[in-house]
Amino acid sequence: MLLTAAVARGVADGSVDLAFRRWARSRIRVGSSFIALGHVIEVTSLEKVDPDRITAQDASRAAYDSPDDVRAALCVNAHNPTYRIGLRCIGEDPRIALRADDNLSDDDVTDIRARLDGMDARSRHGPWTRAVLVLIGRRPGVVSTELAAALGRDRKSFKADVTKLKKLGLTESLEVGYALSPRGVEFLRREVPTDDDVQTDDQVQTDDQVQTDE
């Protein structure tokens, strides 16, 4: 479930605990959770409602100024039923702490390696995990379209794969592009202790200049 940054912050600080959506059928269930702006958000309630019965209190709890503002936001797909969704923050995204943890034991490295090997084995486009990690390490902050093209991949599937690495705490999203997390840097150092190691910014700049000169 997608939330705007303002609403996600409101749920995190407790000032927002409702959302309204028009769906052909429910896309979530009570007790499920999702990540928004670095926090884990739990769905506490879910019910169909008549938009005309949305109250001023409902609107305020959903970060709107008035019921009419809520109804205006629901004008798209007006033929679909309206759902009133209860929300609460139940903690920070555990991936944040995981990303910062670069104190990897041999067992940690073995576990990460096995998970990556499993992703490679299930992939329809062949092994990709190490190549993507190395690429992100060499080109942090580069837009995903360029990274995908560098590997001969389409952007959509490339981003889906990076998300899988993010769930393991190995990468993090930047305002533009991605970077290896401290955990990802340490794993790659242990996994690929060769010339394919993550390069310094100066080395990356040199490579880019060589490519440009060519």
UniProtKB/TrEMBL annotation:
Residues 190-214 are annotated as: Disordered. The lineage of its organism: Bacteria, Bacillati, Actinomycetota, Actinomycetes, Mycobacteriales. Residues 201-214 have a biased composition (Low complexity). It comes from the Bacteria. This is Transcriptional regulator.
